[in-house]
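Next comes this protein.

***
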Amino acid sequence: KGLVIALVAVVVVGTLAVVAEFVARGVVANQVEQQLRQAFALDAEQRVDVSVAGPVVLAQLASGQLTRIDATIPGGEAGSIRADVDLVGEGVALDPTAPSDRIEATLSVAESDVTRALGALGDTVVRDIELVEGEVRLVTGFDIFGIGVELVAGIVPTIDAGVVTLAPTSLELN
């Protein structure tokens, strides 16, 4: 009889631990989603996918650091640019004043959006778009007194205060 009671107690405690783990993962993912919505000024309809990886989230919370968080914001808009934002956080500190081990953001912008965003180039036609070591290089050209001149402008998509921007990084005249 004592063995049966002990077995039932172990099953109940185990079940409660599993339920608590699922609830904790959901609460952490929801909290990260809300912080991303605020940081990127996203509306309620914008999809945000968040997953919390690593062993036992309850133990991670107790340690003050999350092993890994993955988040995706598909089709986020900033003016005329639409970008998919993929975020990876490793060793993410729960205390906002403490450093995290690694936070990485990857922006994926469609070529057509980059070209449209560069309307400031006026009537210039972008001949080619290249990606070189994280820099988007726009190649264009024009003629001066019958001599062909190639202009290459480099930009890097960045996130500044939650807004996707295109920061100019280089300019070459060939």
